[in-house]
Amino acid sequence: MDIRMNRYELELYIAGQTPVSRRAVANLRKLCERDMPDACRMVVIDILERPAVAEEKKILATPTLIRAYPPPPCRIIGDMSDMEKVVFYLDMSAVETMPAPREGEKQ
Amino acid sequence: MKKTTDRPSLAKLPTHIPGFDLIAMGGLPKGRPTLVSGTSSTGKTVFAVQFLAAGIIESGQNGVFVTFEESPDDIRMNMISLGWDIAAWESEGKWAFVDASPQDDDEITAIGTFDLAALLVRVEHAVRQIGAERIVMDTLGSLFGRFTDRSAIRREILRILRSLKTMNVTALVTSERRDESGPLDRFGAETFVFDAVIILRNHLEDEKRRRTIEIFKYRGTTHHQGEYPFTIVPEEGIAVLSLAGMELKQQSGDIRITSGSQALDDICGGGFFRDSIVLVSGATGTGKTLMTTEFIQGGAGNGEKCLLFAFEESREQLFRNARGWGVDYERIEAEGKLRLVCEYPEVSGMEDRLIMMKKVIGTFKPDRVAVDSLSALERVSSVKGFREFVIGLTSFIKHQETAGLFTSTTPTLMGGESITEAHISTLTDSIILLRYVELYGEMRRGLTVLKMRGSQHAKNIFEFTIDGQGFHIGKPFHNISGILAGMPAAGAALQEVDRLDALFRSEERP
Q1: Are A11 and A45 in contact (CB under 8 A)?
Q2: Annotated catalytic, B438?
Q3: Annotation says B346 is catalytic
Q4: Shared-domain flag, residues B231 and B89
Q5: Separation of alpha carbons B184 and B190, rounded Å
Q6: Looking at the structure, do residues B235 and B260 belong to the same domain, yes or no?
C-alpha cells in the first residue's frame, strides 16, 4: 500500500443516532478506513451534545461533512449515499492517482 | 354542561409595535407562529426586528433572531438608525442571533437525504440560553433558495415551528412574495401552519409611496380587517396608523373657551367647547388666518398653551401678519405659550406628518391646536390618505381634551365648498363659514356659524370687517339671500332705501 502524501481532515456533524446519521457515519468510515487509510482523519461531532459548536460552525443541515483540510474548507450535506460523488465534491479523487511520496513525509 | 365560553380563549401577546396591537385587537397569537408576507422592501425585516426590540424594551421579553438572508453584522448596522442597539442587547443576554445566512464556504451540495436538525438544535439552544419568549425567522424564501429539495425544507420548517410551539415561544416568520397578487409565499409553505398571517404592502398611489399592513388571517379570534397605513419613523421604527382602534369615547365636556372674539363667542352661544374641533371655511383672503390668530391670542391671554401648525406661511410671515392685527406672536412664544410649526406640505408624506404632529402635540401638551390650513395638505395627498390623516388627527386632538381649530380654503371666491369639507365636516363639531358677499359692486365679508354641536347658536349671516385691530363682527345681513350659494340677491319687493335700511337693522325681523 502506498503511503499517501495528502492528508484530509474531515468533520462530520450529526444530530443524534438517527438512521440517517448512522448511514452517514458508516459511509464515511468506509471511505476513510477502507479506501484510503492513513490519508484521511475523520471526526464525528454530535451536535445534540454540543449545540454551541453547531452555532459556531454555522451548521444548518445534518449530516454535514466539512473538509477542514486542505483549504479552502468546503461542505456537503446528506447521508453520503453516493461515495463517488462525495469523493468528487471534496476533491479527494486526487488521492487515487497521486504518485507515491518520498518516505518520511507521512504525518 | 360545559359551555363554549369555558374554553380557554386564544391568548395574545402584545407586540408593542405602535398601533399594531390595536388592529390585531391585542397582539399576536401567544406561543404560536405568525407569518409576515410581503414583496421586497415592504419592511418585513424592520417589522421582525421591531417585534423583538419592542419585546425587550417594553415587556422585558428576550428574543432570538434567526437570519437566513442578511448577516448579523448587517442587521446590527442597519437597525442602529432606528434606535436599536442590538449588540448591546446581545452582551446583556437579551438578544441572540442564529446565523443561518449564506456563508462563503457553503455552496450547499446535498448527497443523499438530510434534515435541518442542526438548525432546530441551534434554535432551541439559543432560546434556552437566553430564555427567549419571542423568535423571528427572516426570511423563509432565502432558505428555500439554497436547497434543491424543497419538500424536505418545507417538512423541516414545519418541524421547527412545531417545536417552537411546544417551547411556548411566539414566532414571527417572514416570507417574500413575488408580486402583490401572487401567493403569500414563493414556495407554497402552507399558510395553514400559521395561526395568523400579516401582509405588508408598498403601493405607489397618486405618485406617493404608501405602506400598508393587513391582517389577512387570524385564527380563532377577531381582528380589524383591511389595510392600514404605516410608516417607518427614524429612531422609532414602524408606527401603524390605526383608525380602527379608535373609539368614539372622547370626553364631551360643556366647558366653554373663548374664540378670541367676544362677538363670535356671543354668536356661538358663549364660546367654543373646550373638547371640540372647529372648522373655519372660506375663500382666500376672507380672514381664516386672522381667525386662527385670534383663537391663539384668546387662548394665550387666558394662560393657555397654543400650538399652530402652519402649512402655508413661514414663521416670519406669520409674525408679520399677527403684528398687523396687533398680536405679538414673538412675545407669546417667548413666554412659552405658543409653539409654531411651519412646514411645506410637500416636505413629508401624510403618515409621517401625522406621526410628527402627534409627537409635537404629545410633548408640548397644548390647550389649543390650530392648523392653517388643512386644504394645503389636501393637495399633496391622495383622497384616501387625506381622509385617514384628518380622522387620525381629529381623534387624537379630541382624546387630548384639547380645542382644535382647522382652516379650509374654498376653491372659489364666492360660495362653494371644498373637498376638505366634504371629508371632515362630519368630524368637526362646529363649522364657521367666512364668505365674500358682493353687494352693489362692493366686496363685503360675511360670517355664519353653520353648525355647533350641542349648543344653540345665532343663525344669521353677520357682516364683519378686518382692520389693524383684528376683525369686527357687525350686524347680520338682512333681506339678502343666496350668500352661501355665492349669488347674493336683495329681496325683490323692497325699495332701495328700505333695503339699505333693512340691511343693517339690529333687531331680528318679526
Answers
A1: yes
A2: no
A3: no
A4: yes
A5: 9
A6: no
